């Protein structure tokens, strides 16, 4: 990936942990569970358990990243 591609990637430099912390602070576990229907938001949710899940599950990570991008778009209007 070259420098230009980094600049065009809105997630460049944003960690998965940052994504989860910000989404949790804004929505809470219950709303995140309703939005995504994944166990890490439903069964004893924590940032640590969610990090583990999203790092191992590519489809879910893609989904949480899209949710985060929508969150950013809607909160910076």
Automatic annotation (TrEMBL):
One MF term in the entry's GO annotations: DNA binding
Cross-referenced InterPro entries: DNA-binding_VF530-like (IPR018668), SAP_dom_sf (IPR036361)
Highest taxon, organism lineage: Bacteria
One Pfam match: VF530
Name the UniProt record assigns to this protein: DUF2132 domain-containing protein
């Amino acid at each position: 990936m070259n420098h230009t591609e980094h600049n065009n990637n809105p997630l460049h430099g944003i960690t998965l942990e940052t994504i989860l912390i910000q989404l949790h602070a804004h929505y809470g576990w219950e709303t995140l569970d309703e939005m995504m229907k994944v166990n890490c938001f439903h069964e004893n949710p924590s940032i640590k358990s969610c990090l583990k899940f999203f790092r191992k599950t590519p489809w879910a990570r893609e989904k949480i990243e899209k949710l985060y991008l929508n969150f950013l778009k809607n909160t910076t209007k």
